Amino acid sequence: xxxxxxxxxxxxxxxxxxMAKAQTELLDWQGQGVSVMEVSHRGAPxxxxxxxxxxxxxxxxxxxxxxxxxxxxGGGRGQFAAIVNNFLGNNGRALYLVxxxxxxxxxxxxxxxxxxxxxxxxxxxSKVNGLNQVTLPALTGAADKxxxxxxxxxxxxxxxxIFDEIDAPWPVIADMSSTIMSxxxxxxKFGLIYAGAQKNIGPSGxxxxxxxxDLLQLPSVNPSSIMDYRIAVxxxxxxxxxxxxxxxxxxxxxxxLKSMGGIAAIESRNKQKAALLYQxxxxxxxxxxxxxxxxxxxxxxxxxxxxxxxxxxxLTAAExxxxxxxxxxxxxxxxxxxxxxxxxLEGVQALVDFMQAFAAKHSA
Length: 364
Ligand SMILES: Cc1ncc(COP(=O)(O)O)c(C=O)c1O
Prior knowledge:
By secondary structure, this protein is of the alpha/beta class. The chain folds into two domains: about 25-260, Aspartate Aminotransferase, domain 2; about 260-360, Alpha-Beta Complex (Aspartate Aminotransferase, domain 1). It contains nine helices and 16 strands. The protein has helices at about 15-25, 45-60, 75-85, 100-115, 230-235, 245-260, 260-285, 310-320, 345-360; strands at about 5, 65-75, 95-100, 120-125, 125-130, 130-135, 150, 155, 160, 170-175, 190-195, 205-210, 285-290, 300-305, 325, 335-340. The strands form five sheets. Strands 2-12-11-10-7-3-4 form a seven-stranded mixed β-sheet, with helices on both faces. Strands 13-14-16 form a three-stranded antiparallel β-sheet, covered by helices on one side. Helix 1 (about 15-25) crosses helix 6, helix 2 (about 45-60) crosses helix 6 and helix 3 (about 75-85) crosses helix 4 (about 100-115). It is globular. The relative contact order is 0.17. It binds pyridoxal-5'-phosphate. Pyridoxal-5'-phosphate (PLP) binds near residues 152 and 175.
C-alpha cells in the first residue's frame, strides 16, 4: 500500500513505531500468551505499566511533586464536567475565557451543570486587520472571586493557539487536548491541565489530568465516583477499570516521545512542520489563513481555498495522493491539516507539494 498521511484532527495518527510494536505484542503481551486488553489491571504487569507511564509523563513534562497525574475516562468533554463538579460546589464561581469552539463548549457545559450565575465568560478573540487575534485580558480581582479560570490553549476547530501564559490570581485550568506535549509548558503555572488522549497521546476514551494537590481541598458537589479527582488520586486512577488498551498505547507513545529527544526536541520538529505549511499558504494567493500570526496554531492549520467551489476537487485530489482527512470542521468549513507530534515532516512536505501543484493547475 502506498504511503498515506493522515491529517485527522482526532482521533489522530499515532507514531508508526508505536503501532508496529502494538501489532507485534497484540496476541502476546509480556510473554503471557494473551493481549494487554485481556489481563487484569490489578495484575503486576499492568501496575508496572501504569507506574512507568506516570513516571514518563512526569519526566517529559517536568511535573512538580505537588501535582497528581491521573489517567481517567471520558475524553475532553468528560473533564469539562469533572472540573465543574469537583471545584465549583454550590456557590463557587468560575471564569471561562472563550477563544473558539472548544472553550465555548467547556463554558456551556459549566452553565448546564451549575447555571449561568456561577459562570462568567469573556471573549478574548477579535478581528484585527480581518484576522482572528487573541488579546489576553489583565486578570485581577480578589483571590476568592473565582475558584478557577479556564481556557483552551489550542482551539482545534478554529486553528487558534495561545502561546502566552495566563496570569491570574486564581488557579488556571487548561484544556490542552490538542496541544499537550507538543511544546514545553511550565506546569507550575497551572492549577490543572487536562487532555483527551486522541490527538497527541493515544486512542480516544482516555484523558490525562494533571492536578495540583491543593485544588483537591475545594468543595465539590459529590461528583460521580469515577469523575471524582480525590477518589482517582486515592486509587491510583484505578477505582474502576481503566481503559487499559488506550493506557498501554499512551505508555508506548510516552516512550516514543522520550526516544525522539523529549518535548523540546518535538517542539522544534513541530515548529518546522507548521512553518513549512504556513509558508506555502502565505506564498500562494490561491490559499488563505484567517488567524493572526501570534495565534496561528502549530497543531491544527486551518486554511481556505480562494475559490471555495474547488473544495471538493481539492479533497478528492488530495486523497488520491494519500493525503487524507483534510476537510475543515463542519462549523467553519475550508480545510484543516492537523500536524500533531506523530506527523512526520515528510507528510507536511507531501501536502505542500500537492497544494502547490493543485494551485498551479487551477490558477487562471
Ligand atoms: C481542545 C478540545 N477540547 C475538548 C475536546 C473534546 O474531546 P472529546 O471528544 O474527547 O470529549 C476536543 C475534541 O476534539 C478538543 O479538540
